[in-house]
Amino acid sequence: MWETGKASRIATEMRKYNLAILGISETHWTQAGQKRLATGEMLLYSGHEKENAPHTQGVALMLSNVARNALVGWESHGSRIIKASFKTKKEGILMNISQCYAPTNDSNDDIKDQFYERLQSIIEKCPRKDLTILMGDLNAKVGMDNTGYEDIMGRHGLGERNENGERFANLCAFNKSVIGGTIFPYKRIHKATWISPDHTTENQIDHICINKKFRRTMEDKSIKEALTSTCQEVLGLKKYHHKEWISTETLDKIKERKNKKAVINNSRTQAEKVQAQAEYTEANKQVKRSIRADKKKYVEELATTAEKAAREGNMKQLYDTTKKLSGKYSKPERPVKDKEGKPITEIQQQRNRWVEYFEELLNRPASTNPPDIEVAHTDLPIDVNPPTKEEIRMAVRQTKNGKAAGPDNIPAEALKPNCNTTDHRRTIS
């Protein structure tokens, strides 16, 4: 996500799948904070505490408008864990979500111990009556064998359990959390959450867990997909409105790239998969080149339009064109801080801090040595006589076009052609 524009692209994918909350690992962002995207989503992020720290690790939660309105508060726990709490439709029950990025299986044992100890302390603080979800890149292979773990996982995992998988399974067993990816039967291609760059190795290392009390709320998405695919076949899909500057040639290349991706997923042999991957990589490069060319052409056309509007004095068109060129800007939101300068993430605590701040600001004791300020003159030369005919004509002529009308609903363009006034009423005739 450190790459420019990556957050916006992730938000687009989030809306595409109609997700309310999206967990993100390896953001490579430093420090902790929240940011409102131009598209409306809110991003809660947590990274290394120091600003000049390396851009590694990092976790985040991206919230839709619905999730943002339900947010109660959130906590930053370093570069590997972030937790947020949300209101639910059930009164008195919160939903606590912890997004994680666990150390790899080859990491030092001390680093692993530190991570799981912190994760355990976070889970322990969540009330048992609440819905608790643990998700993210756990770098843990739990495998298919659920012997001894029948209460917290099924037999539909992938591969064999490794050391990280053992740690993760023990954590879930201790806290009575069910590992969702092992419950429902899926094809191997749908179980894998990580594929090596050469497409030779597939692993299931990303997981979503839920406390056993709410196990029945987990649903098999394939049932929904069967219904939606039937609806799609019978009713068709709503037409997608792409960006106005993308050419038909680029759209054709995007469609071709999508077909190449499908070939990779349907390859039966390793040789076919390698060949399909090479073709997809080339198609992806062509799409990116074509999009850059389309965007450059679009910007150049807008610049030409803006220059023409400036020469002709058409300020409305110049403003509209400049707004298109600049795009939407989203200023990062600064977190509310307490008196010691520490960020406050709980919504109610933020409100209390604002109340405290304004009470101190507006109720300061009177100064014992007030500044000596000279009294303003009261005899200012202000003309309070009725406006003259010429002043009215001048005011009408100087009124800008294209502005909203006043209470009388008469636009400036209607007044300018006949700008004569009567002697008595000082009105326009």
UniProtKB/TrEMBL annotation:
Protein name, as recorded: Uncharacterized protein
According to its UniProt entry, this protein's organism is Schistosoma margrebowiei
